[in-house]
Amino acid sequence: MSAKRLYIKTFGCQMNVHDSERISGLLRNEGYRLTEKPEEADMIIVNTCNIREKSEQKGYSDLGRFAMLKRDKPDLILGMAGCVAQKDGEKVLKRYKGLDLVFGSSNIENVPQMIRTITLKAQPVVMVEEPPGPPKTTPADRKDRVRGWVSIMEGCDRHCAFCVVPTTRGRERSRPSAEIVQEVTHLAEAGYKEITLLGQTVNSYGKNLDEGLDFADLLRMLDAVDGIERIRFMSPHPCDMTLKLIEMMAELPKVCEYLHLPLQSGSDAVLARMGRGYTLSEYRQMTTRLGQWIPGLAFSTDIIIGFPGETEDDFQKTLDAVAEFEYDNVYYFNYSRRPNTPADRFEDQVPEEVKEARFERLSTLEKSLARQKNQVLIGTVQEVLVEGRSKRDRAKFTGRTRSNKLVHFESADDEIGQLLNIRIASAGSTCLEGIRIPSRSQ
Ligand code: SAH
Ligand code: F3S
Questions:
Q1: Domain 381-436 CATH (choose: 2.40.50.140, 1.20.1090.10, 1.20.1560.10, 3.90.1580.10)
Q2: How far apart are the CA of 63 and the centre of ligand 2, in A?
């Protein structure tokens, strides 16, 4: 019998992308193989995101589009996963006739069982209850053969006033360290060279486990796994950047010189209303220490524009902070009102046109900063992990420096997964071009 085909459409963060890899890993065992074409699929899953209003709308409109395919193919199984599914649960079934499956991210491990129920009983299944205990280890169908994402914890116990994550992904739950080490060891054996540890506040790992270890201890355990050359993680919370963690990052050779440290705003008044738990000066102390202990450390950040009550003066402080910290990359978003979050009830909402104008100003600053930061690298030699052929120019290859910069260069298919020395020849705001130089051993 030929394999059944699965199409997954994914919205949102790396967590969601990795959740899709896990869904497809579990369904592979049930005889499903991924396809790029929704029209030839036997099962379609839309893995949704509701961090901002737009992402939620896009998920729903895709679901509507895929529901039409059922007219010609009544046996098609249609499912909705992720944060919108978690939030709307049963309600989605009423809105979309023909939907078979609705499940939250903490129910992924039950997907095979849910599919069997649908096929046997021919009735829809909704599963959005958070199961007790730590997240279960499941197989993942990873697309990349060199770099692997590893989820180390689920949920978030913080309560940033703008954010839906604590309600859609539940309480913070860490995976047992032995299971994480085992997963990373298997990745190394399969030829993976780089891992990125994922969690909503990845550096608060371990708090709710009774193992008595923290994120820094986990990094040490993973640094010892043979075959893995690079370790990254996303996203740490500034309040959990302990001295022990900074020391560990400085000491462990595989932990890369790159840190995504969300700032959100440069104004203390806004940070306090957001409930972020730090001031600008505390954030500054931390980045100064990090920069002193880890030479060449590159930073990136998240910024929210137009949080309720943000004045021109507050926004100017954000621009000043972005310039001061010389981020290598800034991810910035206009504030989006999310139902049932505290900030949605704040009175002084910022008009859309003001947000748009501020967005343009931050965008101009960010592009010129990124270009400057990249140009400094011209002439330097960078260690690059070869990822594969460039999507832009199939004759070239791409890879990243330890500081997470994308580089284009000439290479060969059999060098995918190797670390090469590349001399940077030119730089734009989003990537670098380089020429390979022979290593000493060659
Ligand atoms: N803990 C996660 C946060 C996930 S949300 C992490 O640190 O990556 C990712 C980013 O989306 C946040 O850092 C924030 O900048 C942005 N964001 C979250 N809620 C938002 C909202 N309501 N409107 C606009 N941007 C938001
Ligand atoms: Fe969201 Fe704040 Fe947690 S941004 S994921 S509530 S740390």
A1: 2.40.50.140
A2: 27
